[in-house]
Task: inverse folding
C-alpha cells in the first residue's frame, strides 16, 4: 500500500460571504452539517487516510478556529497565519510550504464533503498519485450529480485521466471537488502576492500533468445555507 503524504493543507481562511448569516459569528469551517462542523468532518477523513499533520490557514475569525481545535490530537494541527493579508488559494498554499515539507501534499477546501461510495476516495487518490507523471491529481465530481454547485463545470477528462479546461460557452462534465495531491514544484516562480490555484493548474495543464480521479459517491459543496440544508437531507437518506 502506498504511503500517504505526510501533510495536508486545509483552506480555512475564506470570509464565507455566501454562507451568511451562518458565518456572521463563526468562520465557514465551523459551520455545522448534521450536527458536525465542516472542519471536524474533514480532519477526521484526513486522519483516517493516515496523514499525520494538517496545516490550516487563518484569516477570518481565526481565533475561534484555534479554540475549537485546541484539544484535537489527530491529525496534528499547525497554522499558517494570513490575518494581515488574505492570499487566495494558491498564495495561501505557497505561504504554508515551509510547514508542509518538501514532498507532495494534500490540499482540501473547507467547504468540500461527500458521502463515500465503495471505499475511501482519499485512499484512492493516494494510491493513484504518481509524481513522475503528475504535478497534481485532483478529485473531480460529476457535475450532474453534485449538490451545492451551480456552475457549468470545470474540466473534461481524457481516457488517461488528464484534465483540460472547459471550453468557453460549453458545459464540462466534471467539477473540482476541492481536493488534490499536488507537488510543491508547481509553486516555483509564482508571485508573493495573492494568486489563485488556477495559476498552477494551468501550468500543469500546459505540460499535460494535471490529472483527475472521479469521486466515487456523492459530492457536496457547502457554499451557501441552502447547500447545508440539501447536504443534511442527503446525509439523512444515507
Result:
Amino acid at each position: 500500500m502506498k504511503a500517504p503524504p505526510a501533510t495536508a493543507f486545509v483552506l480555512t481562511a475564506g470570509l464565507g460571504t455566501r454562507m451568511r448569516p451562518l458565518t456572521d459569528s463563526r468562520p465557514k469551517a465551523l459551520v455545522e452539517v448534521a450536527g458536525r462542523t465542516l472542519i471536524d468532518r474533514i480532519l477526521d477523513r484526513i486522519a483516517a487516510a493516515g496523514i499525520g499533520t494538517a496545516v490550516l490557514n487563518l484569516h477570518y475569525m481565526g481565533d475561534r478556529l484555534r479554540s475549537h481545535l485546541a484539544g484535537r490530537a489527530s491529525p496534528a494541527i499547525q497554522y499558517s497565519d494570513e490575518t494581515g493579508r488574505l492570499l487566495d488559494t494558491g498564495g495561501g498554499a505557497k505561504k504554508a510550504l515551509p510547514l508542509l515539507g518538501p514532498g507532495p501534499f494534500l490540499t482540501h477546501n473547507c467547504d468540500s464533503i461527500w458521502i463515500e461510495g465503495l471505499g475511501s476516495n482519499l485512499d484512492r487518490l493516494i494510491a493513484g498519485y504518481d509524481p513522475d507523471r503528475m504535478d497534481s491529481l485532483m478529485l473531480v465530481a460529476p457535475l450532474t450529480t453534485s449538490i451545492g454547485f451551480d456552475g457549468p463545470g470545470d474540466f473534461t477528462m481524457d481516457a488517461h485521466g488528464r484534465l483540460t479546461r472547459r471550453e468557453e460557452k460549453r458545459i464540462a462534465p466534471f467539477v473540482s471537488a476541492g481536493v488534490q495531491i499536488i507537488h510543491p514544484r508547481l509553486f516555483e516562480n509564482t508571485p508573493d502576492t495573492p494568486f489563485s490555484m488556477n495559476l498552477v493548474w494551468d501550468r500543469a495543464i500546459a505540460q499535460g500533468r494535471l490529472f483527475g480521479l472521479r469521486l466515487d459517491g456523492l459530492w457536496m459543496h457547502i457554499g451557501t445555507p441552502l447547500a447545508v440544508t440539501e447536504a443534511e437531507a442527503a446525509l439523512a437518506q444515507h
